[in-house]
Amino acid sequence: MRVFLAIIFVLSSAGYFAQLTDLHLKNALVVGQLDKPEDRYTVEINLTEMLTNAGIKAIPSLNMMKLGSDASLLATDSIQRLVAAKGIDTYVIVSVRGFDRRFKPSIRKDDLNTALGAGSLFPIYREEVVSVSFEFLFYRNGQFVASDIVKCGNVSERDTVIKRFRKKVIKRIVKKWK
C-alpha cells in the first residue's frame, strides 16, 4: 500500500512541477500588483528589463494604462486587443506573497479577470523582515498556465530586496521560464 501511495505521490508531483518546464515564455506583459506606485514601477521595469535582456519580448503594464490605474482594466476587451496587436499573448502578474520562506506556488487557477482584480496585501519591504517571497502568475490567452515563487532572503532594506529580486529572477528566467 505504501508503495502504491508513493508512486501516486511521485506522479502527481511530477505533473505539478512540470508546468514550469513547459512555459516557453516568448513574450509578456508584466503586471505588478503592488499597492505603492513606486514599488509597482520598480518591479515592472526591472522584470521587463530582465526579460528583454533574455530575448523575451516584454512590455510593462504601465505602458498600457496610466500610473495609479486599477490593474483590472487590463482585462477589458479594448486593452486586450491593444496588447494582442503588439504581439503579446502572455501576462505575467507579479505580487508579494509574504515575508516568509515557507510559501509554495499557488494552487489556485483563477482566470485572468479574477487575478487582475485581486489586490496586494504587502509592500516590497517591511521593517524587521529578512525574507520576501514574490509570486509570479502566468496567463496565456486569458487562461492560467503556471505559477512560480521566488524567495529573496537576507534582506535588510528596500534596495537589498530589489538587488536580490534581480539576481534570483534572472536565474529563474534562464533556467525555467525560457
Protein topology:
Layout: H1 2-21, E1 27-33, H2 37-53, E2 57-60, H3 77-85, E3 90-98, H4 112-117, E4 131-140, E5 143-153, H5 158-177
Parallel strand pairs: 1-2, 1-3
Antiparallel strand pairs: 3-4, 4-5
Helix pairs in contact: 2-5
Beta content comes to 15-25%
Q: Averaging pLDDT over every residue, what do you get? A: 84
The profile of the biggest β sheet is:
5 strands, mixed
Q: Which structural class fits the helix and strand makeup? A: alpha/beta
| Intertermini distance | 39 Å
How does the overall form come out from the CA principal axes?
Answer: globular
Determine Rg (CA atoms, Å): 17 Å
Number of strands: 5
Order of helix and strand elements from N to C terminus: HEHEHEHEEH
Q: What would your notes on this structure say?
A:
With 178 residues, the chain is an alpha/beta fold. It contains 5 helices and 5 strands. It has helices at residues 2-21, 37-53, 77-85, 112-117, 158-177; strands at residues 27-33, 57-60, 90-98, 131-140, 143-153. The protein has a 5-stranded mixed β-sheet with strand order 2-1-3-4-5. Strand 4 (131-140) and strand 5 form a beta hairpin. Mean pLDDT is 84; it is low at 3-7 and 9-19.
In short:
The chain has 178 residues and is α/β, with parallel strands linked by helices.
